[in-house]
Amino acid sequence: MSKIKNIVQRPVATYSIVARDPSTGEIGVAVQSHWFSVGSVVPWVEAGIGAVATQSFVEPSYGYLGLILMRTGKSASEALKSLLASDPNRELRQVAMIDKDGTVAVHTGSKCIAAAGHLTGDNFSVQANMMSNEGVWPAMKKTFEKTKGDLAERMLAALEAAEAAGGDVRGRQSAALIVVHGNSSGRSWIDRRFDLRIEDHPEPLKELRRLLRIARAYEHADKGDDLATEGKISEAGKEYAKAAELAPEIMELPFWHAVTLASAGKIEEAKEIFVDVFLKEPQWRELVRRLPAAGFLPDDADLIEAIIGIGR
């Protein structure tokens, strides 16, 4: 295995959590920092393998190599021990790993800028450096353990608790949240349930929570599409309704629900949704004209004109 490079960079002061949901097998990392695009540096996750958060005087190869080692069957503890042994700047690093079985390994080097530390629990680790006080990571641990919901909700709650406890001594700038399924499908592009980044924002955690809400809406919409493809229009409608409820400001979600209904011959139900969409965002009328050629609506000129004319 290649040695860690002997390079010291500026510190990516960060608080993060690596965690696994034992009930679903989902694995994830969530992080917030006063550093641009923290999501491109700190979190590394692979379905069916594990997750890594590499921070402080960050060395990204801990993420890349850590996943490789866990992919070959090494536990999180074995992987981290191996990488630390080859790193002359290990005391500047803060790294946490979790493997597919929920085993956790974490290292906070003695030269990490205070306040710095970590705590572990069942299937998770929280870690932080350059914090305003030593209460930040204990607040994360407590909140993660008591919060209900899926892994994404619990990890985001932990980040919010860190910020409420004082957070980064310099403030805030970016955040990220990644959750993957417990087992690999062999297709990495569908193994990620959530992959959200806030690159630069005055309130990155508030923006991350907003994006998580929208991501959940699109998750329901995707389920609706799958059910509609199977001809289960009623079940699809329930998923589309959940999507619209979660993100009422996004007209694209009810628009495609209406298209699905119209394609299934449920014209009157479709019209009720189209009228609301067109009143709020009239530009969707033009898209209706273009859908028959792509096979998304019946090639019926009278029907298309009737839909476009709704609400005028």
Give keywords.
about 300 residues; elongated; six-stranded antiparallel β-sheet; Serine Threonine Protein Phosphatase 5, Tetratricopeptide repeat; 10 strands; alpha+beta; Glutamine Phosphoribosylpyrophosphate, subunit 1, domain 1; four-stranded antiparallel β-sheet
End-to-end C-alpha gap: 67 Å
Q: How many beta strands in the DSSP annotation?
A: 10
Order of helices and strands: EEEEHHEEEEHHEHEHHHHHH
Largest sheet, in brief, is:
6 strands, antiparallel
Q: Write out the strand line-up for the largest beta sheet, numbering strands in chain order.
A: 7-8-1-2-9-10
Number of helices: 11
Provide the helix percentage.
Answer: 40-55%
CATH fold-level assignment of the largest domain: Glutamine Phosphoribosylpyrophosphate, subunit 1, domain 1
CATH architecture of the largest domain: 4-Layer Sandwich
The radius of gyration over CA amounts to 23 Å
Explained architecture:
This protein is α+β, with helices and mostly antiparallel strands and 312 residues long. The chain has two domains: 14-202, 4-Layer Sandwich (Glutamine Phosphoribosylpyrophosphate, subunit 1, domain 1), CATH 3.60.20.10; 217-308, Tetratricopeptide repeat domain (Serine Threonine Protein Phosphatase 5, Tetratricopeptide repeat, Alpha Horseshoe). 43% of the residues lie in helices and 20% in strands. It has helices at 61-71, 76-85, 136-146, 151-164, 188-191, 204-229, 233-246, 252-263, 267-280, 284-294, 301-308; strands spanning 14-20, 27-33, 43-46, 50-56, 93-99, 104-108, 117-121, 124-128, 174-180, 192-198. The strands form two sheets. The chain has a six-stranded antiparallel sheet. Strands 3-4-5-6 form a four-stranded antiparallel sheet, with helices on one face. Strand 1 (14-20) and strand 2 form a beta hairpin. The radius of gyration is 23 Å and the shape is elongated. It starts with 13 loop residues before the first strand and ends with a helix. The mean pLDDT is 95.
